[in-house]
Amino acid sequence: MKIVFGEYFHLPRVGKDAFISLMKAGVEYEKGKGFRFVEGTDVPRAIGIIEAATGKRVELIPRCFMDGKPAGCEKCEYRYMCNRLEVSNYCLCDDCYEDEGTISAYYFKFSEELE
User: Fold this and answer.
1) How many other C-beta atoms are found inside a 10 Å radius of the C-beta of residue 20?
2) 32: exposed, middle or buried (C-beta count within 10 Å: 0-12, 13-18, 19+)?
3) Fewest CB atoms less than 10 Å from the CB: which of 9, 27, 59, 81?
4) What is d(CA 102, CA 98) in angstroms, rounded to the nearest whole number?
5) How far is the C-alpha of 74 from the C-alpha of 109, rounded, in Å?
6) Which of these, 42, 61, 45, lies nearest to 53 by C-alpha position?
7) What are the residues whose beta carbons fall under 8 Å from the beta carbon of 57, sequence distance 6 or more?
8) In the chain, where does DSSP find H-type helix?
9) 1-26 pLDDT, tens digit each
10) pLDDT tens readout for residues 60-109
11) Cβ–Cβ under 8 Å, residues 64 and 91
């Protein structure tokens, strides 16, 4: 199961206890739209709850640091050694990765984040 950080996703009925645990982990829920990981969500805990409740492995897809689109993890050269829970705020989507102008802007924006 792929979950894009910040986008709504649907789950099968997970039961009352799992639902309450997801809410305590900071997962947002809106009837008709579904669940969503937002700033402040305890992502490792939420993923564990979802995996236990559904029996499916969860793959977290981060958002692009520059334009907010889903990051291009499938093509990323770091995908096999990446811990998406720790570095995912600084990923790039395929379009930004291939655009030299965006790469320069990325370095500038990243250096501002470090200050």
Assistant:
1) 12
2) exposed
3) 81
4) 8
5) 24
6) 45
7) 1, 51
8) 16-24, 43-54, 84-87, 94-98, 100-114
9) 999 888 999 999 999 999 999 999 99
10) 888 888 888 888 777 888 888 887 776 667 788 888 888 888 888 888 88
11) yes
